[in-house]
Structures are given as C-alpha cells and as structure tokens.
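Structure in, sequence out. Go:
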C-alpha cells in the first residue's frame, strides 16, 4: 500500500478543497498595487513617480500611460546595466542574488535577466500551486511516491561579482525545497555537470536505479535524453526501464510539434501537462485535465498586460511601437492573439517578453502560447504566426505518416529576384521534398487568407529541404549550447539564414 503516497495525495486534495477561488481580475489589481508600493522608492519608482500612480483613481490606467514599454535591450541600456556597477535599488529593492542567462532564440549574446529573492519565492509558490492542482487529475496514490526527472540546464551556477549566473532552470533546480530533494532526479551531483552530453550519459548509466514517475523539461532535449537511455540499455521504449512513468510536464515551447516523435518513445500514453516558466518568471500552468490550456498565475508577483497582435503594432525586430495600445485582464477577449507584457517582482516593468498568447477561457484566465513576435513572418504580407506553422507541420505528419520534430523558415529573395518561403524540415524518412512543399503550401493557403493572397502576388513559391533532426540540435550546440532553455529559432532573417544554410551544408 502506498502509505506516503496516500498521505501526500490526501494533503493535496484537502489543500485544494480548502483553497478559495481566485478572482483573476481582482488578484491582478492587487498584484499591481503591491508591485508599485514595494518599488516606489527605487530609482525606477522615483523616476516614474510610482507614488503618484498609486494615488490615481484608476491605477492600471495611470500605470500604462506613465510607463513606456521595455524590451530587454531598452531596459538593460537604461536601467539594468547599473547592476553590473554594483548599484542597489535600481528597479527593485536591493540587489538581485541571481541573473538568468538567456540567449533565447536570436543569438549568441546572453541576456542577463535579474532574478530576485522575491522572484525565487514566487516561482516556488507557483510550483507548489501546480502540485496542488494535481488533485484535479486522476492519479493514484502511488504516483506521489515516484521520482521526478527534471531535465534543465546545469545547477552549477557561476559566481560573478556579488551574484550567481545560470539559466532559469538551473537557478530553480538549485533552490528546490529540502523536502523535494528525495524525489528530484538526476540528483545534485549529476545536475551540476556543465557538459550536456556528459550529463545525459550519466543519466543513462544511472537510469535503472530510479523509479521515474514524471518528467519535466523542454520537449526537444527531453526526447534526446530518452533516446539516449533507450539506446544505452537497448530498450524498445522508455517504459521498459521506467514502467511507472505517467506524466510529462512540458515547458518553454508548445508541445504539439513534438507530440508524435515524443510518443514514439513511449510504451503507452502518458499525461502531458503544459507549463510556462520563462527566465522572467513562472507565468502559467495547466490546472485541469479537461483542457491543454494553461492558467495564468495572477496572484503571485507578476502583473500582465496585453497588446493586440497586429502587424501595425510590431516593429521589424519584433518589439512594439511606442503607442501600441494595451489592455488589462478584465478587457481581454477569446481567441484574439495578444503580445504579452509583464511587470514583476524582479523589477521588470511593462516588459515585452516576446511571446504571443490567446485566451481560451477568460473567466479562468486560461491561455495558450501562440508564438513569438520575432517569429511572425510578414515578408510580402504573408502574416504567418508560429501556431499556424506548427499546425501545418502536424498536418504534414498526418498526411505523410511521419514525424517532424523541428523546422525553420526564411522568406528569402532567390536567384530569380523573387521571394520564396524556404523551409528546412527535420525528418528521418525518405519523403519527396516537392510533394511536401506542395502539401505545405496548400495547408497554409487553407489556414491563412493573408498567406493565400501573398502567394497570388509577391510570394513566388515554397521550397523545402528535408534534413536529419540532429542537425538542428547541433546548430543550437554550435551557436549556444545543448539542453536547458535553448530552443530552435523558427524564423530567420536572410543574414542568419545564410549562416544556417552554410552550417547545414557542412553537416551533410
């Protein structure tokens, strides 16, 4: 009998039943007040006169009118650079203990995003709330006695001046609660290994010693780890070694493009739970099994705003024009793409995180990530978002009975001086590139009227090259590093795409 599991499950069920229902709009109003009040005496708070904003009749309106939008470059150049000069009380009281290194999907240069003690606590609390939400899922008591494989970046954080640096997954893993350490795998020693391949090799060698019930990480790197374990032990699938594996908590990117290739590594279906943990904070998690949408964390250190995702509001680099209109949670609508704006307990203010979302349930504040502003392909008016591209990849998988875990695209002017959408698609099968291109073109025409119009005018055609998925991972390794928060860029400009094509040619 799973005595400990029954105790844990009972605590979760009782806690959930006693928890009062959060009103997302009211919670957000309170969070904004708390943020402004806490930071009112910082340099940033004094400069933008937070005290006057707090005295306003409509605090949210005064806040949005007084504070401009900031992307990383703008807030770093104007404010966060001071942290490197040992300044305190810049955009949040005190000095950040951690900085999350994030190269995102756009280049080699790491962003250094402050992670305060308040943010560490907020992330912990959001994680605990997600655990409590498991009471909505139909898991047996023995599930709560199994171990959890958290595959992130190294927890061997680097000391620099008076702070520590690392990716957010390494920072959070190094701050796990003491009571969770017995469940956490691969364990502290292996998690500190910097080299991805060496770390995964150690995981494979120790896999038989663990009874894994849940996985947590970015899908692409989780797949590679599972493949390594399966290969090392000469298994048919991962359930041969971890028979009690029931859950994969996916984060960082949409899971749908990886669904088919991921499921091929399993002996039977498992529950997929989506989360939204970024370097800037724990934004949302899937709170109930009836949907694959995620519930915004509206009562815990992050204030959200939303800008309608329209071409006229987006600059070429993916940032917002200064006068793009924003709305608060109380005014959002269903199935409208929004650019997500956040203000946080790490001292990010009206910060453009770069993601686009849509609401699937306004009352519950449930969302889906629909793409990246930088990955919005609008050359010659095609207006393709990442979710449309992901949907098209899934249609190709179904049509050709294949798996497509990775892809990238560029709108490129070719030898005839015409624009083409040039796709590189990760695939192991011997498919006909022309047939794939025709099917892809037809799918996008059907799904997107702007794309269809562009194809009848300035967009000459579609070109597809099929390459091994491993090349995508090696590209990431050569430009950034393997594992952790690293994700493949879905859309490239022509300059970056030339480097990509040169790299692909060197690998084939």
């Amino acid at each position: 009998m799973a005595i400990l599991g029954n105790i844990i499950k009972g605590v979760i069920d009782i806690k959930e039943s006693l928890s009062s229902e959060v009103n997302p709009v009211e919670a957000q109003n309170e969070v904004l007040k708390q943020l402004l009040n806490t930071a009112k005496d910082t340099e940033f708070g004094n400069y933008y006169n937070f005290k006057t904003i707090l005295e306003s009749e409509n605090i949210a309106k005064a806040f949005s009118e007084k504070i401009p939008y900031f992307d990383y470059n703008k807030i770093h150049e104007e404010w966060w650079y001071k942290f490197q000069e040992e300044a305190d009380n810049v955009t949040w009281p005190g000095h950040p203990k951690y900085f999350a290194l994030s190269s995102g999907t756009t280049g080699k240069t790491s962003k250094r995003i402050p992670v305060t003690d308040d943010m560490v606590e907020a992330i912990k609390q959001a994680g605990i709330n997600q655990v409590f939400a498991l009471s909505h899922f139909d898991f047996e008591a023995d599930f709560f006695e199994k171990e959890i494989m958290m595959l992130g970046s190294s927890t061997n954080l680097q000391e620099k001046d008076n702070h520590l640096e690392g990716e957010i997954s390494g920072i959070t893993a190094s701050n796990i609660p003491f009571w969770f350490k017995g469940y956490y795998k691969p364990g502290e020693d292996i998690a500190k290994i910097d080299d991805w391949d060496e770390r995964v090799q150690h995981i494979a060698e120790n896999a038989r010693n663990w009874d894994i019930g849940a996985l947590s990480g970015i899908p692409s790197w989780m797949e590679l780890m599972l493949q390594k374990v399966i290969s090392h032990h000469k298994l048919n699938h991962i359930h041969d070694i971890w028979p009690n594996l029931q859950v994969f908590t996916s984060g960082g990117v949409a899971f749908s493009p990886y669904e088919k290739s991921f499921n091929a590594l399993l002996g039977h279906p498992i529950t997929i739970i989506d989360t939204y943990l970024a370097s800037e904070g724990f934004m949302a998690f899937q709170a109930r099994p009836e949907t694959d949408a995620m519930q915004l964390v509206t009562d815990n250190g992050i204030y959200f705003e939303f800008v309608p995702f329209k071409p006229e509001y987006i600059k070429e680099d993916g940032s917002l024009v200064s006068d793009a209109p924003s709305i608060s949670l109380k005014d959002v609508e269903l199935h409208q793409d929004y650019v997500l704006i956040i203000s946080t307990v790490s001292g990010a203010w009206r910060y453009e995180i770069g993601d686009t979302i849509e609401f699937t349930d306004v009352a519950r504040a449930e969302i889906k990530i629909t793409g990246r502003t930088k990955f919005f392909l609008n050359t010659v008016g095609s207006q393709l978002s990442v979710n449309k591209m992901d949907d098209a990849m899934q249609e190709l998988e179904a049509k050709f009975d294949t798996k497509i875990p990775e892809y990238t695209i560029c709108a490129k002017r070719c030898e005839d001086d015409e624009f083409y959408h040039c796709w590189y698609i990760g695939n192991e099968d011997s498919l006909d590139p022309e047939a794939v291109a025709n099917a892809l073109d037809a799918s996008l025409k059907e799904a997107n009227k702007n794309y269809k119009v562009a194809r009848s005018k300035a967009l000459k055609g579609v070109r597809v090259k099929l390459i091994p998925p491993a090349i995508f991972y090696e590209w990431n390794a050569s430009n950034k590093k393997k594992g952790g928060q690293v994700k493949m860029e879905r859309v490239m400009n022509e300059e970056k795409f030339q480097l990509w094509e040169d790299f692909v040619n060197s690998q084939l």
